[in-house]
Amino acid sequence: MKQIIKKSCMLVAATLVLASCKKFEDINVNPVAANDEQAQVEYFINGSIIGAQMNPDVAERSFVLYWKAAGRQMSEGGTITVGNYNDQWTGAYYDQISNWLNSANTGIQLAEKQTAAGLAKPHTPNLIQVARIWRAYLMSEMSDNFGPIPVNAFNGTNPEFNDVKTVYYHILEELADASQKLDLAVKNPSGLDKQDPAYGYDYAKWRKYANSLRMRLAMRLSEVDPAKAQSEFEAVMATAGATNDFITNMNETFQVQEKDGWSDLTGVMSRSWNAQPISATINNLMIGLGGIKSADLLDAKFQPFIKPANWLGQSYPNHFATKTNAPGAGYWFNGLPEIMDPRAYVLFSIPGDVENPNFPDQNANDLITVRPLRNAAGEDIKSIDAKYSWNARINGAWGTKTGMNLVYNFAGAMPRINMQFRTSTNKRVFFGPWETYFLIAEAAVRGWNTPMSGQAAYETAIQKSFDYNGTQVGSYLTSESYNRVGTSVAWNHTTEPTSRIMEFEDGFTGTKGSATVAYPKNDLYKNGTVNNDHLTKIITQKFIAQTPWLPLETWSDHRRTGLPFFENPAIEIPIQTLPALTDATYMTSKVQFFPQRLRYPSNLKNTNAAGYGQALSDLGGKDEVLTPLWWAKK
After folding, report:
1. What does the mean pLDDT of the chain come to?
2. Among 111, 127, 105, 132, which Cα is nearest to 21's?
């Protein structure tokens, strides 16, 4: 047993923490050292799954400040969204995911040793397959963050790193093999279900998860290795498509119950000091989308604040960022949109809506909606009341406007993630049924063999998302209303949008005006010629459905496809970490404007210099935030 633990700890020893693996031995010591027969494989799998929920320290930095920011589910302007990083945050996450992988692998090694010694139980072979499936997910998570990682990290030596292609091919092979080897007829002993916080060792559900995960990771290769992507995806369809042997319903969702307090099970979005305001990206996707009126979604008290569909807002060009390609740059939207995706009001709060039980009232600032604008001398010249308004901060460098505008960066003035996601009473979703159907829809659009049409899968996916959020789909699926980036919902409505006339007023004088406003040009997708084709619709809806639980996936989809439209950070002054983003380029979209990965923690090069060198060689670029991964757009 000790030898297994020793080997399993090599990845951590080669990175950050030399003593952390002792806890895995302690799990099975009660109170004398456990031998191989007494040690329980399921304890290691359970520890790995629970650990990966992330304790509040890791969750705040990785899930919130890295993933949610890079995946544009929230606004966070000072770190990864502008190409920056924090080595302490990265180190904590690298340490933890190494531990989760070590624990899963230890379970596999222990089970294999028990089998070889004739000590295996009837369910032991299935535990091996479950651990392999879960380990495959963890490897994909780690690789999607950093790039090259060690495939064979547990052979008792400092691990050699492998390129991302090798990692992905290995993961896909593992998922295919492990899912086939699960024996659904095996009966579990009493109490075993308590050691699996996701599925209670329901092996049929584990196989569904393996198939859906394989679909996700196959699709990840769609742009760089389309033949492999198609073959892997179609292989799942061949074995599982006819019987829907993948995640199709909420009771098959890979999710883990959160618990309040401070532990690995504490909610990933629970920290009160993280306001998590709505991002400009998701705001632009949801306003105008679906044709459903705010008047039909909101209480009577909000009705006077709803603005016409052609309302641009109040113009404050000297106080709000304008050097960006974001729709509505330079304007404050002094009310609520006429048309809004219904899920917006479920996910995010309306500023000042303090009577709502889901209003995120965790800090004194959350209740304050009135904030001043100032002149260059620092004198207050106007107050803005954000109560019952709907705005999203554009990330970036605002220069002198930062000190002149005390509204744009203030928690109480912006919609923020609602309280039901912050109380540690939810289940953290790792894979929902909507994603399976969005993947099938995308595969159909690409011409791959699928069990249903692209339209059927797309509409089913949207319905699954609406069901999860407790909203009614109504006429949403047939809406031809464009959002702020020129995308509609209806599958058969692929007409490209044209510029429109919008009304506004001067924020200081109230003088009315109108402006011809073009929809943004997304140069990352089809050279900016398309805003409303089928793939754009799919990824737009997938982005919304994945909010707020799967920000790593929204980030990965954008890195892979360039969709949906991500506005550029504002550059009222230059951003040193985004040198390609300049006064001459900020109206275009380029890969170099968006984060692509996390840097390796600084002490990796000290603890495993050879492995670090191999990682950089396999990465094919510098160890920087802006270096694209193998499967991402270049």
Report:
1. 93
2. 105
